Amino acid sequence: MTHESLVLSIILFAIGVIGFLVRRNAIVVLMSVELMLNACNLAFVAVSRQLMDMTGHIYAFMVMTVAAAEAAVALAIVVLIFRTRGAVNLDQINIMKG
Amino acid sequence: MIQAIAFYLFAATAVVFALLVVAARNPIYSALSLIGCLFAIAGIFALNSAHLVAILQILVYAGAIMVLILFVIMLLNLSPEELGKPVFNTRKVLAVFLLAAGGALLIGRLGTKVWGSLPAADDRFGSIEGVGMVLFTQYLLPFEMVSLLLLAAIIGAALLSRRERGDRS
Lengths: 98, 169
Hints:
The structure holds two protein chains of two kinds. By secondary structure, chain A is mainly alpha-helical. Chain A has a single domain, classed as Helix Hairpins (Orthogonal Bundle), CATH 1.10.287. Helices cover 80% and strands 0% of the residues of chain A. The longest helix of chain A has 31 residues, at 55-85. The radius of gyration of chain A is 16 Å and the shape is elongated. Chain B is mostly helical. Chain B has helices spanning 2-23, 27-47, 51-76, 80-83, 90-110, 128-137, 140-161. At the A-B interface, helix 1, helix 2 and helix 3 of A face helix 1, helix 2, helix 3, helix 5 and helix 6 of B.
């Protein structure tokens, strides 16, 4: 089961990276990041089970809290940008481009 | 045997929903697919004897974070014009192919014989008691640091979404 879980983790992570690079909607990009974090959690938990060491579960909790904090701040930024510029498309948000 | 069937069922569900997250035009469908994907991953956590992580995955991720994301999507209420037309260019196609090739390479390098047989899990492994014991003894300092991180996130989010006095927009 460990090997299969790790394969699934790689597949999910690759899908997340593809979404992160290909999609231009800021919220979908954020969800792709969540997908990548979940793939990492899956790898942590699978290896934790194989080694019978619960440290991986602790890491999974840490990743979850970081994801929650990241989602809260990122969504606040998205709402703020939408309010001031009227767009969530990342191609139109180029105000910081030099 | 039944564990393997359940695993492949959950794995297939997770991959299909993950593809839908990336492929759906409407962000609402993306978010709903992500909830399905998170549930499937929670099932795989449970199959890996990580019961507490599975429960928290459903409570925190599918419950709290996804509700927040759905709430913001519905708050923004994007029209089809604002969502824009799907754009296909060579760079995107190249990115998809390169990442698929990289993932396949990584899976090929993984090696099936490294891990050996799975040790039997006792009752404490992955339970609230077992994980709590590790979390509150060995990893107490990181646990407290996480509370600090969450406090910073709360203050940051409140500060960002606050309106200036006299701002009516």
